[in-house]
Give the backbone structure.
Amino acid sequence: SVLVLCCIVIFASFYLIYFKGGLNKIRAGGEYDSSRYESELAARSEALKNLKDSVALLNSINKADKDKIDRFIPNAPDEPSLVISLGTMIRDSGMVLLSIDTKSGFEPKGNTVKGLKTVEVTLGIGGGDYQSFKNLMESMEKNIRIIDVESFAYSPGSSAYSIRLRAYYLE
């Protein structure tokens, strides 16, 4: 009888310590509750599906349209192309490019787009009249690459312009 009583006490304490505590861990809200992991799996599966849909959409864009996007906002500073484009616009407007200075890698103020950087360009331009300058501004406005004119200065005695502008790219 003492042996039976000892066995009952040992089994009862084993049950209370190990089984009862383990049962609470797998119950709802416990450490091993599978519903928490199932909801996390569902959320990650949905995110994976959205990512696959985005990749499929990206892959469905034809090469010509991708090239247009790259000209609109390239994935590198592409300073040579920008300089050539600006030089052509200046020449076509009847003016002369006197100097050009470029600096790249700046993040625009108030930027909310991840990886958006700028190329800052300072132009020295000579010749031309008001109509030539207006034509230049219109061609910059119509240019496929985004260009913001930050400032310009005019020296009436020498018919020289100084223009500071900013072009954008994604890094």
